[in-house]
Amino acid sequence: MKVYLKNDCEELQAGLQALVCCGIEEADEMTADVLVTAEKREAGLSVSFDGKEATIGYSRRVEFFRGLSHVLGAFAAGKSTDVSETAAFCSNGFMLDCSRNAAPKVETIYEVLARMALMGLNTMQLYTEDMYTLDERPYFGYMRGRYTDEELKAVDDRAYALGIEVIPCIQTLAHLATVLRWDAFRPLVDCNDIMMAGEDSTYEFVTEMIAKMRRCFRSRHINIGMDEAFMIGLGNYMKKHGLRPRTDIMCEHIARVQTICDKYDFKPMMWSDMFFHLAQGGYNEATIPEEVIEKVPEGVSLVYWEYYVTDQETYARVMSQHKQFRNPIVFAGCAWKWNGLLPELKHSLSVSRMALAECIHHDIRDVFATAWGDDGAECPLFVVLPVLQLYAEFDYSGGAVTDEQLRERFAACTGGNLEDFLLLDKPNRTTENQPAIGLNPTKYLLYQDILQGLFDRHVDEETFPAFFAGVRDELRAAGERNPQYRYLFEYEAALCDLLADKCTAGIAIRRAYLENDRETLERYATEWLPMIDEELRGFTDLFYDGWMRENKAFGFDTIDLRLGGLHNRLITAEKRLLAYLSGEVDRLEELEEPRLFFDNRADDKADPNTFCNTWTRIATASVF
Which long-range contacts (CB under 8 A, 24 or more apart) does 59-63 make? Predict the structure, then answer.
């Protein structure tokens, strides 16, 4: 859609130019499809479009671009439209994980920002553990694809032009394993991935982090992390200071970090789970002790994160517990892409509706969706767009968003088909009515070893091959309907093509061995395993293409090692079978080991699917 902005509105010009990747481009008055008048107003968003001319009234810059997406949707449908909206949330956005091997290219972040602007989302948090440079610490982010100051400033500038606030999201206590692995940081270690609280050298380090964030970003907000530091004070700290209450250590550390934030004009927020864990073992039904509430510095916002709960009552209860604190409360939900190779979109959409409704009810006005990349960030980034769309539509409709509205808005803001995107979950749905969320058979059936079969007991031989073949065909057809995102569907289709043959191969080989079916063993060795290896090569190529399209090159080495190792194990399986068939070896002891359930279940459990998102545990029972 070619757009001509009729009135001189300088604050919108750079943002409008940033929407070329979304099919919106500037034109002169004569060649434009749509003539737009922008009007600044006190509150809310209004759009009036008659098919040729549009008037967009906006109170926040990002609302103009959301208004433009309403025009885009109507223009594509050949309709006029009149829209009036008021956002329910003060801030609403997306946290992009840049720290689990996949470091999105700056151009990728630009496209995400453009899509967010069309949706009307106004914050992005960049989760960067060690993914930026510290001038005096060359090992910080070394060989990880860390962002330069210029890259971070460029992202901030692009976001600002679109009316989006980029909030730095760092770690100032735990989740620093990739930093603390280096000898240069050994003096800062308490235990595991946790820094030593109370040490001047720690706060010098934190000062460098926060000073760098101030140099790179406009925002006055900063997420200082501090989640899941369960072992704080139990390592080198305890050796030096003895055993002290962990709540005391935690709150003393927060106070010192807050002082640094104050110095650099930042308002900090942090994940809230540590207070609940230390006080009552998690988000349970107990009341938070007053002495814990009193110790938490009031200037720090607490971020309640929840990705798993599927009942609205729990959200209500835990939000009420958070309200016991004297601190501002922020909610972080899920745009789930961290259980391996695929997203969990339907679950994310379902629980997001519950959580966001409770946020409005409890007057929590700052929310964002998280997209973590656990165990190597194997899942592509743009699969989460439907969840971001829901966050936006829930916001501007006050919660009254129908499936049809979501579908239409998704098409307008992304160019994608929502029903097709929801197919991206399907390869993990090998059975109906699975007993738990997040089960990930595509990951463990991909990486498990042909000869050792740690997950063979979690395969239904009769149904799984046909299931994967059927989903493969659905995905390929969906890719044709979504050309801009075809790579997402082709990647998964290739995975299904591979799994249709691989998922039962180890079971069949072992059965043939135990039954002395030498003909079947020979066919696997000479025909079927080479065929599976060829399918693996095709999948690897598509994985590579998608990764390099979205991310910097760093981090793909892990994927190469995983898929390359799988390739080598297929070759080894061929060699072992041929050695047995030729009489070079008289037994294959790998195939004589009994096959156990990976999750120690009883034999009578109905659904075969299980969960494991740790490659080292999937690939082998041996020690890495």
Answer: 60/87, 60/122, 60/163, 61/11, 61/12, 61/15, 61/162, 61/163, 62/117, 62/120, 62/121, 62/122, 62/162, 62/163, 62/164, 63/87, 63/120, 63/163
Hey, where are the domains in the chain?
2-85, 91-415, 424-619
What is the second-level CATH architecture of the domain 2-85? 2-Layer Sandwich (3.30)
**Burial (Cβ within 10 Å: 0-12, 13-18, ≥19) of residue 280:** middle
Tell me: the pLDDT tens digits for 54-105?
999 999 999 999 999 999 999 999 999 999 999 999 999 999 999 999 999 9
CATH number of 91-415: 3.20.20.80
- How many whole angstroms separate alpha carbon 332 and alpha carbon 11? 30
Are the CB atoms for 554 and 145 separated by under 8 Å?
yes
Which tokens sit at 140? Answer: 């910080």
How far CA 138 is from CA of 95, 134, 179, 185, in Å, comes to 26, 7, 11, 11
Q: Which fold has domain 424-619?
A: Four Helix Bundle (Hemerythrin (Met), subunit A) (1.20.120)
Whether 49 shows a pLDDT value over 80: the answer reads yes
Sequence-distant (6+) residues with CB within 8 A of 416 are: 385, 410, 482, 484, 485
Query: Taking the mean position of all CA atoms in its chain, how far away is CA 220?
Result: 24
Please say whether the beta carbons of 375 and 615 come within 8 A. Answer: yes
Nearest to 339 by CA among 290, 291, 375: 375
- Read out DSSP for 512-563? HHHTT-HHHHHHIIIIIHHHHHHHHHHHHHHHHHHHHHHB-STTHHHHHHHH
- Rounded Cα distance, 391 and 190, in Å: 38
- pLDDT band at 295, cuts 50/70/90? confident
Do 145 and 99 touch, CB atoms closer than 8 A? no
Residue 403, exposed/middle/buried by CB under 10 A (0-12, 13-18, 19+)? Answer: exposed
